Amino acid sequence: MKKKILSVLLCAAMAAGMAMGCTSEKEAANESKKETSGDSEEKGSGKVFMTVSNQQNEFMVGMGESFLEVGKAAGYDVQLMDADLDAAKQVSQIETAISEDAEAILIEPCSVDGLTSGLEAAHEAGIPLFIIHNNVSATDLITSLIHVDVQQGGELKMEQVMKDIGGKGNIAIMTGTLGQDTTNQICGGYDKVLAEYPDVNVIFEGAGNWGATDAAPLAENWLGAGKDIDAIVCNNDGMALGVLPVLKTAGKTGEILVYGLDATNEGLKAVKEGTMAATIFVDAHAEIEKAFEMLEDVKAGKEVDKEYKVPSVLVTKDNVDEYMK
Known about the structure:
Layout: H1 2-43, E1 47-52, H2 58-73, E2 77-82, H3 87-99, E3 104-108, H4 116-124, E4 129-132, E5 144-148, H5 150-165, E6 169-175, H6 181-194, E7 200-207, H7 212-224, E8 231-234, H8 237-250, E9 257-259, H9 265-273, E10 279-281, H10 284-299, E11 307-310, E12 313-315
Parallel strand pairs: 1-2, 1-3, 3-4, 4-5, 5-11, 6-7, 6-8, 8-9
Antiparallel strand pairs: 10-12
Helix pairs in contact: 2-10, 3-4, 5-6, 7-8
């Protein structure tokens, strides 16, 4: 009988020991899980918003994709918003980011002057503001302007145009949305070069608003005027690609040279094929990477540059293979 009681007690003790062991392992696992979660939050936590002026062309779609990719890799909950070239809508999107306690807001602005109320609200809330690609007038409210030097890009492109047409002739300039800083900067680069070429006439100038939808009918109107055009110089590849089928229909491919900017995949293909004379490599991915790099510096209490420029690169048939994916 004593042996039976002793056996029962021994089994009970072993069971209790096993239960305690399981409990200890669960507690250890939970502690480890908490520590892992804490490390993840330190790496990058919270929401980061980006509002872009539009998603109407390959370049802008690519910029949005870069934001989502880089932000997620940094550990953030990233949310991308499209303003549809509407300043009031973009202000509303900035306000949404503020209400969601954004860790930071990246803004590719659709207006130089139209976003000030949203910028003021974000600044007062203490949210870092990184202005991407286009500038705003209220620079005192932002953390940093991060942009490709598109004025340099405009100069490089127009210098190539002058080389290709021999420094004389008639050209047409197709701009992005009027009033946007990028439009102003690119055209400023054109003007700087054109000032040195009095025998070049700008016979047409109009807004293609960054996409083929507006670019194609504008090009049709120019061709319909019956004037000789040596080159159509577009502020981006999206518009240039919209011009190409118009020229093909009119039998003018190769006769009228076409120039873009952004070095999109389709733009690069056109340069390689010879239907576009040149484009400009604009590294939007580098702009986004720099913004997240600066965000970490700001969180660490470090000073960041008020302006950061990414250089532009001319792309022609001579070097297009270097930029094709």
